[in-house]
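Input record, target 12 of the design panel.
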């Protein structure tokens, strides 16, 4: 499978900072980095609920690190 133009293939992202951006939900792009993401900063946003997918992501990463 080849890459779609203007999109990164096999991107290794360990850190995402989305603090103070008035977000109501977790950005979809965050889940694209699920395999390598180690730190996600969402402080000072308007997020009221975590989607089920994000909870699985958090639990999966915790299980892999311990």
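The sequence produced for target 12 reads:
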């Amino acid at each position: 499978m080849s890459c779609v133009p203007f999109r990164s293939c096999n991107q290794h992202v360990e850190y995402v900072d989305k603090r103070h951006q008035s977000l109501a939900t977790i950005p979809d792009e965050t889940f694209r980095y699920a395999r390598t993401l180690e730190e996600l900063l969402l402080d000072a946003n308007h997020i009221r609920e975590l989607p089920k997918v994000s909870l699985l992501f958090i639990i999966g990463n915790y299980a892999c690190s311990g």
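Residues 1-6 have pLDDT under 50 and may be disordered.
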